[in-house]
Design a protein that fits this description.
Elements (H helix, E strand, L loop, with lengths): L2 E4 L9 E7 L6 E2 L4 E6 L4 E5 L4 E6 L5 E5 L3 E6 L23 H12 L3 H10 L6 H4 L11 H12 L20 H10 L17 H5 L3 H14 L6 E2 L5 E2 L20 H16 L2 E9 L1 H13 L8 H15 L5 E4 L2 E4 L5 E3 L1 E3 L2 E3 L2 E2 L7 H16 L13 E5 L18 E5 L3 E6 L5 E14 L5 H16 L7
Length: about 475
Amino acid sequence: MAINITMPALSPTMEEGTLARWMVKPGDTISSGDVIAEIETDKATMEVEAVDEGTIAKIVVEAGTEGVKVNSVIAVLAEEGEDPDDVEAPEAEAAGGGEKSDEASKGDEDEEAEKPAKSEEKQASDEKPKKSDADRTTSKGETAQKPREAEGKDLRKELEGTSPKLADVGSGQDRIKASPLARRIAALRDIDLSTLEGSGPRGRIVKADVEAAEPGKKQAASDKKAADTPADTPKAAPDGLILPQVLDDRIYDPESYELKPLDGMRKTVAKRLTQSFMQVPHFPLNVDIKLDKLLASRADINEAAPEGVKISVNDMLIKASALALMSEPDCNASFTDKGIAYHKSAHVSVAVAIDGGLITPVIRDAQNKGLATISREMKDLATRARERKLKPQEYSGGTFSISNLGMFGIKSFGSIINQPEGMILSVGAGEKRPVVDDAGEIVPATVMTVTLSCDHRVIGGAEGAKWLAAFKRYVEHPQSMLL
């Protein structure tokens, strides 16, 4: 019996991906564990391994196809003793639940529309309206309902001898849902379907909606609405984001810019950061930290370190933040609908800028790792992140985040919380500043400003301040990290 190979879910949040490349072709024999394809998610490119063994009978989804839904069939495998030529491949799907793609749905509608006009006429004559009180009885007590058959004959007469042309319904997310009969009537009567509201299931436009439309008035109303709407009025995107409309040619000459479509990562980053900024009640806490002792300790460590090991300031900040989370466990927390999750270990997410977006690889159990281990893991994760080769478990599951822009000379900034984490630390550049020492003298010191953004549903101002005090203590007295 043939085995369906489906689009795998490569991360807990993955809903769809791009089938970048097939490593096999029809007729190839595969075994369990063989790499058969490469899948691009919003964060990385991953290899897919075969689970079963057999012969590739059919490729359902071609290489390069975008938006392939999780659990949809992408190929069919023939088992031993089964003729691959006899295997029937299912149609490509757009969703794991069996929902068809726009193209498949359009094909079904077109097929339905090509049925003999007689069946459409029968459909028109079979639909009977409910009787109103006025229709049921006249002043003489006689039935006054207009025969439905006459109305059906009028529609048949109107459709008779016409071409099977269907009104355009667009494609993709902007596709208008309308029955084939409604589309044919709309094309015949020159009715713009985009001006109608459907009364059918899930807002589908049906015959009754088109018959009730008045083309002139409807179109005029639509044109007036469009004319009264400012060019820069935002519209709601399908996923709930507020996005600007198409660039107005009256503001920007089309030849003056190059429009680059959003890739999967940009869409995901935009969606999640917008949700976090709008849904998480957050507040910032700022503090200045002296770096002189940490810089001196780093120099001593690197001088004594074996060849190939070089500790960065960021490595030491990762360690300090993890120890501060252990010192203030109330801050190592996440908000959930069922309650607050207090994490038992410090999994530190580190923001890494990559081509086309941002990713946060995670240093797990950072409180238990030495600086050399953190440095080695961070270099490896950052390198593979820029190549989009990270596995989902390597960039998800963090309990706290660090974003460092100090290398760019940024003095201070605030970051958007990386849900479901409760806090994110924004690290500015270390610079020479005049400070007052314990003796009251003004002396130069290397100082950096950090900003802690907190989810107020989980962490209060006092808890955030305690965490910053612990973090500052570890940074200003780096030897305390050894205790």
